[in-house]
Design brief:
This protein is mainly α. The protein is built from 1 helix and no strands. It has one helix at 2-48. The longest helix has 47 residues, at 2-48.
């Protein structure tokens, strides 16, 4: 019985690992989108206030 429980516990670990992977990918995408939005706001405000912006 103990052997059967230990054999099935690997599926629980697999679910936990896949859940962590999905969460990290989601946060990575969210962070990238948030960065793009923030840069857009900065450029829009700079254009509105006629502040020269160097890109690069």
């Amino acid at each position: 019985m103990l052997h059967r429980i230990l054999a099935r516990s690997r599926y629980l670990m697999l679910i936990a690992v896949l859940g962590c992977f999905a969460a990290s990918v989601t946060l990575l995408i969210y962070g990238a989108l948030e960065t793009v939005v923030t840069i857009g706001h900065i450029l829009r405000e700079a254009r509105k206030n006629k502040i020269p912006v160097k890109l690069g």
